[in-house]
Design goal:
By secondary structure, the protein is an alpha+beta fold. It folds into two domains: 9-238, no CATH class; 260-365, no CATH class. It has helices spanning 189-196, 211-214, 227-233, 262-273, 330-335, 354-365, and strands at 9-10, 23-24, 41-44, 47-50, 55-57, 69-75, 82-83, 96-104, 111-112, 125-126, 130-141, 144-152, 159-161, 166-173, 179-186, 217-220, 223-226, 237-238.
Length: 371
């Protein structure tokens, strides 16, 4: 691979179908202006789907993004593989992770706010049943990971690189027919780094494809399989422990598995939505609130911990998490806010995740003790 062009080469011989030949770009900044030029997704019979070389995947508890659903894919240069680790896998140069954001449409064409997606949509999208919004790419180059936001055209035929991001005003219908207004924001490249710089000053990293997020069944065309086991079978993951019970596993959002406690559900949610900043080396480490899986349920996790920010940022509440009383907890206040100067997470949403707030408040309400 070292002999390949710095500006990127097609993996197969010239003249092959572009849609089946993803781009290899380990160096340089000659990023394609259109998503189709990457060759990661293809149209087939009214569907948008990953090419054969790109592996679809899903997460146990995903990041909330204004109720958008996501089609995720992994592509790595042929013959290469990622090496297993409990936190960040070691992905090879040229790896491309894609995440296509979309909303389901009903028979009348209305965008729907649904809690869970169609399992089939994790593998491909029926284009007349969805509205495509954006596709974000993470590309691993020699200088590190690069984030590239592509915004879909209104006719859903192409997505174009938009360094400055974009915005859309959307109206979603929930299960009761109530309308929810969403000011959807496609992040610019710097905002992508604001979330993906999980370790302060160490560049950006993928957040979703970690062992604890991927350790779940995925409904492949051939039937359900554990994703990590399937990645190993396909040769894209190396050094997976033989005993999957030793691999961490976040709670399954919306449909908890047998034995998954409310605490595990709440902590998995905080892991996916907050811990990329609130960890011992993260951008929010100075807050003293650490919401990563490695922090025990203690004052460091917010129990009876006074907030660093006072006044408006805390809602005049005295501690981050007040056992038994979500109405007196700063954490509850901030996840229920849409005020840009108050809300957490700071990016990625313009509305409140009702179901996420419900889980967090129910968990805090049953915590024993007091402050």
């Amino acid at each position: 691979m070292r002999g390949w062009s710095l500006l990127g080469l097609l993996l197969l011989l010239a003249g092959c179908d572009r849609a089946s030949t993803p781009l290899y770009l380990p160096d340089g900044e000659d990023y394609p202006a259109t998503l189709s030029a990457w060759g990661l997704l293809e149209r087939d019979g009214g569907r948008l789907q990953p090419v054969a070389a790109a592996v679809p995947y899903d997460l146990n508890t995903p990041l909330f993004t204004d109720y958008a659903h996501k089609l995720r894919t992994l592509w790595m240069p042929p013959g290469s593989h990622a090496r297993y680790a409990q936190d960040h896998f070691d992905y090879p140069l040229g790896t491309v992770l894609s995440k296509t954001f979309y909303y389901p449409r009903d028979a009348q064409g209305h965008l729907r706010r649904t809690r869970a997606g169609d399992p089939d949509m994790a593998r491909s999208l029926v284009l007349d049943k969805v509205q495509l919004i954006e596709t974000r790419l993470l590309l691993k180059q020699r200088q590190g990971w690069v984030a590239l936001p592509y915004v879909w055209d209104a006719d859903q035929r192409e997505a174009r690189l938009e360094w400055a991001g974009a915005s859309q005003s959307l109206s979603l219908l929930d299960e009761q027919g109530q309308t929810l207004a969403v000011d959807y924001q496609v992040p610019d490249a710097n905002q992508c780094a604001g979330c993906h710089e999980e370790r302060h000053g160490q560049g950006i990293n993928p957040l979703g494809p970690k062992a604890r997020h991927l350790n779940k069944l995925f409904d492949y065309a051939e039937g359900p399989q554990n994703q990590l086991t399937e990645w190993q079978r396909r040769g894209v993951l190396d050094a997976l422990p033989a005993d999957l019970t030793t691999v961490p596993q976040n709670a399954q959002w919306g449909q908890p598995r047998t034995g998954e406690t409310l605490e595990h559900q709440a902590r998995s949610y905080l892991d996916a939505n907050c811990a990329h900043c609130h960890n011992p080396q993260g951008p929010a480490r100075t807050s003293g609130l650490l919401l990563d899986p490695g922090t025990p349920l203690s004052i460091a996790f917010g129990l009876c911990k006074p907030p660093v920010a006072a006044g408006k940022g805390s809602g005049d509440r005295l501690v981050d998490i007040h056992p038994g009383q979500p109405e007196r907890s700063v954490l509850s206040y901030r996840v229920q806010s849409v005020d840009p100067s108050v809300m957490m997470p700071e990016l990625g949403r313009s509305t409140v995740h009702r179901e996420g707030v419900e889980v967090l408040n129910r968990w805090i309400a049953q915590l024993p003790g007091g402050c």
